[in-house]
């Protein structure tokens, strides 16, 4: 069908929305939803009806419906507060209020100039509920349903979050020759999180990693009879196995095995219905968790390796015949280095995904025969894990944050279009061996906010939406909790105020959305200004400043680059550290003049506090100091602690008490040390971000994960 919608032409077969100015390529779920709206104009349609009719009864959350509605509004440039196309009726549903006219399918319409201008009739909205235009209230309500969370162990392994830049809204250009029906088929249904899918050349054996009980387990599933082979390397709870890769002939599999004391790669050969004993092919440094792949020569392997914990990754080639390894030509090591790569389906070349100093994600082609490296394109986007397309002539990526699409780009980074869209959050894809489809892990994502109360010495849940709620930070000045939530589809800042200053630990049951970003941005730190009138949000390459009354935001006038240890020095000064010629230095950004100045170069990082005695400093030797006039900290065992976790301080001081985290398996343990007492663990967290206030510690936990492996269902 084709539909005339006001000044737009909608074609559901070509999945396009056209106007005189542009032709927009819609994602499949947006096409299905818009088709349903066109068939039911001027009628309130409930979310349950949409789930049954558009999502065909699949189990999806209300926020998944909200997300697609939000994207439709973007295509129409529609304002949820003053809608011309889609109106929200709180607790009832949505109404498509635009003028719609079906166009007969046999009538030719090849030029956008043939669009019929809509008549000037006005839609009467006077009878609408007075709150019909309030998208916020409906979407806050929608975030109350529960779901399960995937704690992506792979992110810890490959530091994916450190490799990619600030997200932006992606416009889709031309209708693809290869598109999807929007359908997918689940290949696994294990209790834990199933990740790292890889299919043998004959399509019969699926290898994947199941993350369960904070442990990685490598499995091979025979798709014909559902039988599963588990790769055992000892019964230790700390042993993790995987990910894996198949040789081109499907007769061998190579994989990673790690413990806190070891890092090794093994190969096994298929023997009838089982596998041979493991053959050790390489010992990697302890703390290195890189992946490994066969080349088209079964005797040569490509792998990512770091020098150990928190060190950047480099790419190497291993010749099994000679035992020699060589470091490959590759992009400059920035943040976590180079761990994301993919072998071309037919040629002897790699696609390497790597960030630059601006935190733009670059995609590079490396010819393994000549060792020649070539930049294909860069994106200022929070986007991840590029792989070659099935034909090897395009690049396939996960979509905008939070990703629920697979996108296809040409080798210049242009002409992007979606090849798959679903309601779940997608992880890094791989190619199916049928030469047409793709495999990907997908599941719900859910992180909750809790507070450990100093008065009761117990924890209580504060924010438990069915989506990710992150970066909780509390202001003692105005008794307000700020956090990032995906409750309305994309990252927005929400505020939750305490009942009164006399009961700071008793909070309201509702939160208020402060921002209206409506884009795909991603933040890694959030902090209050001392006076409580502004929030600082750190992206991967920018500092954003948000007014806590209006929600309006601005960018600090700083070059795009990696910034660490960001904090307010005072109400008019922001401190942050950047790397100059291999050395980290503290800079100050002055809000009144929008200029910068330098701290003494003996200091790498600082975390300023409203209480001057709680300000922390790290010098160029890596020693920790505290106070307005820095004094060296001797009461802590520095040999067992990391002062920074990625970009943020992993330690905070509050009066006589110290708080820091240490890894406990695949989770984190928060410790407290008061005065001369011994350190004691007080809680378990699932995020490096925590915040200490007068009343307690705000932190994050995730329910057990539930992620499965899916394959796309493509049509030509």
UniProtKB/TrEMBL annotation:
Signal as UniProt keyword: no
GO biological process: phosphorelay signal transduction system; regulation of DNA-templated transcription
One function term, GO molecular function aspect: DNA binding
Domain OmpR/PhoB-type, chain residue ranges per copy: 1-98
Entry's transmembrane regions: 150-170
Residue ranges flagged as DNA-binding region: 1-98
Annotated keywords: DNA-binding, Membrane, Transmembrane, Transmembrane helix
Record InterPro entries: 6-blade_b-propeller_TolB-like, OmpR/PhoB-type_DNA-bd, Sig_transdc_resp-reg_C-effctor, WH-like_DNA-bd_sf
Alphabetical list of Gene3D superfamilies matching this protein: TolB, C-terminal domain, Winged helix-like DNA-binding domain superfamily/Winged helix DNA-binding domain
One Pfam family this sequence matches: Trans_reg_C
Recorded superkingdom: Bacteria
Protein name per its UniProtKB record: Winged helix-turn-helix domain-containing protein
């Amino acid at each position: 069908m084709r539909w005339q919608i006001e000044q737009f032409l909608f074609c559901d077969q070509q999945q396009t929305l056209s106007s005189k100015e542009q032709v927009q390529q819609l994602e499949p779920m947006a096409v299905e939803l818009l088709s349903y709206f066109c068939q039911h104009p001027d009628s309130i349609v409930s979310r349950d009806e949409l789930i049954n009719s558009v999502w065909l009864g699949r189990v999806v959350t209300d926020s998944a419906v909200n997300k697609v509605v939000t994207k439709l509004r973007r295509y129409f440039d529609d304002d949820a507060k003053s809608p011309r196309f889609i109106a929200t009726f709180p607790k009832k549903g949505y109404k498509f209020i635009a003028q719609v006219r079906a166009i007969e399918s046999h009538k030719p319409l090849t030029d956008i100039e043939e669009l019929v201008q809509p008549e000037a009739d006005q839609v009467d909205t006077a009878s609408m509920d007075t709150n019909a235009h309030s998208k916020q209230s409906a979407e806050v309500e929608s975030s109350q349903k529960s779901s399960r969370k995937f704690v992506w162990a792979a992110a810890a392994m490959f530091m994916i979050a450190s490799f990619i830049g600030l997200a932006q809204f992606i416009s889709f250009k031309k209708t693809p020759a290869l598109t999807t029906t929007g359908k997918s088929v689940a290949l696994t249904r294990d209790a834990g999180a199933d990740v790292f899918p890889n299919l043998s050349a004959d399509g019969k054996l699926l290898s994947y990693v199941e993350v369960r009980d904070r442990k990685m387990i490598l499995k091979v599933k025979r798709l014909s009879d559902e039988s599963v082979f588990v790769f055992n390397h000892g019964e230790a709870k700390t042993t993790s196995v995987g990910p894996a890769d198949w040789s081109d002939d499907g007769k061998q599999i190579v994989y990673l095995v790690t413990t806190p004391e070891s890092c090794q790669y093994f190969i096994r050969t298929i023997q009838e219905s089982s596998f041979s004993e493991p053959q050790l092919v390489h010992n990697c440094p302890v703390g290195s968790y890189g992946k490994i792949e066969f080349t088209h020569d079964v005797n040569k392997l490509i792998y990512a390796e770091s020098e150990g914990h928190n060190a950047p990754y480099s790419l190497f080639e291993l010749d099994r015949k000679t035992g020699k390894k060589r470091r490959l030509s590759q992009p400059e090591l920035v943040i976590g280095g180079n761990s994301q790569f993919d072998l071309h389906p037919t040629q002897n070349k790699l696609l390497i995904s790597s960030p630059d100093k601006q935190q733009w994600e670059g995609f590079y082609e490396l010819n393994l025969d000549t060792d020649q490296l070539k930049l294909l394109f860069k994106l200022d986007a929070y986007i991840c894990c590029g792989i070659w397309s099935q034909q090897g002539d395009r690049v396939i990526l996960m979509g905008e944050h939070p990703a629920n699409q697979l996108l296809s780009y040409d080798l210049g980074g242009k002409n992007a279009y979606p090849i798959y869209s679903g309601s779940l959050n997608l992880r890094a894809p791989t190619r199916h061996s049928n030469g047409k489809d793709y495999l990907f892990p997908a599941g719900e994502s859910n992180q909750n906010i809790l507070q450990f109360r100093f008065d009761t010495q117990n924890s209580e849940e504060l924010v438990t939406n069915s989506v990710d709620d992150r970066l909780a930070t509390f202001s003692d000045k105005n008794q307000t909790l700020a956090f990032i939530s995906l409750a309305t589809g994309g990252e927005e800042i929400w505020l939750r105020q305490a009942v009164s200053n006399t009961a700071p630990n008793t909070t309201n049951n509702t939160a208020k959305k402060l921002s209206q970003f409506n884009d795909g941005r991603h933040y890694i730190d959030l902090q209050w200004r001392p006076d409580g009138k502004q929030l600082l949000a750190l992206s991967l390459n920018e500092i954003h400043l948000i007014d806590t009354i209006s929600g309006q935001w601005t960018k600090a006038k700083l070059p795009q680059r990696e910034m660490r240890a960001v904090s307010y020095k005072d109400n008019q000064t922001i401190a942050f550290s950047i790397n100059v010629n291999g050395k980290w230095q503290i800079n100050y950004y002055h809000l009144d003049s929008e200029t910068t100045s330098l701290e003494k170069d003996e200091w790498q990082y600082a975390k300023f506090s409203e209480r001057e005695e709680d300000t922390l400093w790290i010098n160029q030797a890596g020693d920790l100091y505290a106070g307005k006039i820095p004094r060296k900290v001797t009461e802590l065992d520095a040999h067992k602690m990391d002062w920074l976790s990625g970009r943020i301080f992993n330690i905070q001081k509050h009066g006589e008490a110290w708080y820091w985290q240490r890894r406990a398996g695949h989770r984190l343990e928060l410790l407290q040390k008061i005065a001369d007492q011994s350190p004691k663990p007080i809680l378990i967290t699932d995020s490096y971000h925590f915040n200490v206030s007068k009343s307690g510690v705000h932190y994050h936990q995730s329910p057990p994960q539930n992620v499965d492996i899916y394959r796309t269902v493509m049509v030509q």
